[in-house]
Amino acid sequence: MAEQIKMPQYPEPYWRDSVSLPTFPKLDESIDADVGIVGGGIVGITAAYLLSKQNLKVVLIDAGVILNGTTGHTTAKITAQHGLIYNELIEHFGKNKASLYYKACMEAKQLIEETITEHDISCDFKKEDAYVFTNAKSYLQQLETEKKAYDQLDIPGELTNTIPLTLPIKSALIMKDQAQFHPLKYLKVLVEQAVKNGAEIYENTTAVDVEYTKHPAIITRDEHRIKCRYVIEASHYPFYDGQGFYPTRMYPERSYIIAVKTPKQFPGGMYINAESPTRSVRGATVNGEDLWLIVGENHKTGQGKSTMDHYKALQDYAETHFGISEFVYRWSAQDLTTLDKVPYIGPVTGAQQSVFVATGFRKWGMTNGTIAAKVISDQIMQKDSAYADLYTPSRFQADPAIREFTTANADVAKHLIKGKLEFTNDNIKDLSPDDATITRVNGLRTGVYKDKDNKLYAVDTTCKHMGCEVHWNSGDRTWDCPCHGSRYTYTGEVVEGPAKEPLNKVEL
Ligand code: FES
């Protein structure tokens, strides 16, 4: 058997590796703004761009560096085809709201296109058709039902049994005229434009709370305050909950992406299958050469098999269907899904109308993130938004999602207890370099990582959000929480909230 091509040792998204981004200082004083934005991903940066254009004073902070969260790890499809969703939306919300969901996505696409034209942005934007395909007989009916939903909503689409990609399929549903781009080349220009319009950006500045009085103030970990008229939580997981109970209304999932070269030319199109495990494919061009992005293997954060196995499964898939001549990148992403699959975009609670959240994009962050920035900017500018009701985080839909609500929370309760009882006998001395284990140190459940130079890093595995026990993610070398998706580096620093504080270090 031919030896398999080696995958890159460390995760690194192609997007970040192919663009150089500006850097910004840390906030070292208290300041005033019209709008304070927390989070430098597609929502925060697009909102900073739109609002600064309206002459509002915008301050954006990021706990790390900008464009290094989910936006920096996306597949960057600009499409309204979010898997098989429209029949489900019609059933849960009715035809009008399902139609609004489609229109919102298409408006996001249009906004991106107009912005590219306005600033002449060179960001590899390319029109592509989007395909949901299946090779499972049991999904044929679902594709047909989805096509009927397209017809009801006047979405241009058709069923086919051939696609340009050399994959075995039984049927596929096409949505014409969608698009893809290089998200960081695009957002870099929006950052520059926002700064030109007077927006201030601060990196390595962590928001820990919002003080909600007449005017909200963002409180940073260094105890500085950004006093503003409006706050936008664009931090993926809302760092400030305002008693909106977000941890019980969303669940985090991880997915994996590999970027490979193959002996074949990429035929165009953007693809996702309907069945599990998810497989999604798109192309990108790097220095005139095709890069194939293969995505999938979704699972709840902190649960499931070894993370390297997920990359391996994608590699096997790519090898089988396309052949791999070079394995260039691998990376993973984390996404949040709401109970009814529609994002939460709007005031954090009914009573706190000046603090906005934008979250729960279910892996479709380019369109959902762009429309979120637009809807919130319109609300701040006191303009009517056709989509405000659809996305309002205060909605409650009595639908099958409630079952998921119960399951999601039962899952959290299970992990809260299970993690505490787990005991491992792993001896740290037997630990291989670049590996981690869970052990007990003075009775305390402790996660120990040994780096390539045999240096040990030990952390208390109790998540700082609500006390679940974190699990080792060998693919990204992070400690991940199965309950609400907080993630920490092996030294314990927060990579991803809702946790705001680092894990406690343990002396060995
Ligand atoms: Fe909520 Fe860890 S993320 S307990």
UniProtKB/TrEMBL annotation:
Pfam families: DAO, Rieske
Protein name in UniProt: (2Fe-2S)-binding protein
Protein species of origin: Lentibacillus populi
A GO cellular component entry from the record: membrane
Sequence ranges assigned to domain Rieske in this UniProt record: 430-508
Keyword Cell membrane part of the UniProt annotation: no
Molecular functions per Gene Ontology: 2 iron, 2 sulfur cluster binding; metal ion binding; monooxygenase activity; oxidoreductase activity, acting on paired donors, with incorporation or reduction of molecular oxygen
Keyword line: 2Fe-2S, Disulfide bond, Iron, Iron-sulfur, Metal-binding
Keyword presence, Iron-sulfur: yes
